[in-house]
Amino acid sequence: MELKPLAALCVLLAFVVVAAATEVELETTEAQSSYIVHVAPAHAPRLPRRGLLTTVAYGSFLRDHVPVEMSSPAPRVLYSYSHAATGFAARLTERQATRLASSRSVLAVVPDKRQELHTTLTPSFLRLSASSGLLPESNGTADVVIGVIDTGVYP
Q: How far is 27 from 23, CA to CA, in rounded Å?
C-alpha cells in the first residue's frame, strides 16, 4: 500500500515538469518580422504552367530550406516577385532569416522596414511644374527617366 502514495507523487511531479516545460517553450517562441528574400534566378522555383501561384512554390522553397526544428512559428510567404527581382516577401523569425541567408540559393535576406516617403530634387530634375506636364519635357523618348516607388511590404 505504500507504493500508491509514492506513485501518485511521481505522477504529480511528472505533470509539474511537463507543465513547466510547456510554459518555457511558449515563452521562448520567437517573434516574426517581414523580410524580403532575394533568390538566385537559377534556384527560383520553376512553375509547371502559367498562372500557378508563385507564393505556393516559394512556400515549398521555404520548407526545403528551413529545417523542421526551426519551423516554429511557421514561416509564411506574403508575396512573390518574378519580374524585376526574383524572390519573395515572408514572415520569418530572425533565426529562420539567418538560415535562409546562409543558403547558396539565396542572394540576400533583408528585413522590411517602414520608410518615410520623401523626395528632394526629383521634380526639378524631371523639369516638372504645375503648368507643364512630363510629356512636353520628355522630347518623345529621348533621355527618359523612369522612377520606381517601392513602398515595401506591409503584413
A: 6
